[in-house]
Structures are given as structure tokens and as C-alpha cells.
Amino acid sequence: MLQMGSKGSEVVELQRQLAAAGFKPGPADGIFGPLTKDAVLALQGYCGLSMDGIVGEESRRALQLLGGGPAVQKRRLTANFKEGEFACPCCGRLKINIRLVHLLERLRSGLGNYPVVITSGYRCPQHNRRVGGATGSEHVLGNAADIRVQGTAPEKVASAAEGLGFPGVGRYSSFTHVDVRLGHLARWRG
Question: Quick check: pTM over 0.85?
């Protein structure tokens, strides 16, 4: 566990990972000070974790998943979702905001525990361009999934997602887009 006052090589690595994920921990000096704590709090808020400024197992895993890397196809993220379901289809890499996965678990439960099929999760920038994804897509950030729920109309899935507080919800005829973007709500029909 790392927290205010921690020092050493583990803190240097944490600071490097935070910076690579877009958070601002200050210099990688191995001292867990106020800037590093602020970056950890930002990470925890972004990922929907308990905001205590302490880096335990949950925060480490969230940071690792945001940092990107090869997906382990069968490794579980949660009870009902595996890394491979969210991996980019062209390169097999995974970058995922664990907040998205936790909300998808809640959505699954709220819709009668029918399987939620991820039709598009993380997209590397090249794949996103190939499929005509929006510039700055939440998929590229690891914040989005296009889904289908067995036996449930996309309109009903979208309404349930909005009720759970997904910030981004797109309604399409054959699937629903959900995301955990920051800063504003987005609703659209495609």
C-alpha cells in the first residue's frame, strides 16, 4: 500500500504510471507527496473507486487497466466480464476504465441477469479510424462499450443505462453504446 509519506522505487513507478495514464503526479522523484496524492485521487474519481488517496490493490488494478497492454483473454475483470471481451479486435490490446465494467455489471443485474455481449470495447487509434469511429472516441480511452443484451431491445437497454447513471448513452437499432466519459452527459440516436 502506498500513501502520503511513502518513498522509494515503488512510488517512482506509480508516478510514471499515473503520468502515462494522463494524471499529473509531479516529477517521478519517489516521494508520495501532495501532487501524487492529488493524481491518485483523480484516478480514483475517474474510475469510480473509493477516494481515499491511498494506493491499494483496487487502485493499482484500475491504473494497470487504464495503462493499456495485452489482454489476457480469460482473465476476469468482474464476475461476468473477462478482459478478452473488451480487447481491441485488431491488436488484442486492452485499455479499460474499471468504472465502465462495474456499471455494466449493475446493468446486467438490473436487466434480469441476461448476458451482456460486448460488440466493441477498447479500440486502438488505428482500429478506431478503420471503423469510422469519432475522433476522440471514448472507445480509444477505454471508457466505452457497444453492447447487446440477450432478449432485450436496445431501447430498453439504453433507458436502463441512463437510469444507472451512465454519462454517455447512444441508441442504435441493433445495439446500445454506453460510456463513462467525464464532464458532461451525452445522449444520441445513431
Answer: yes
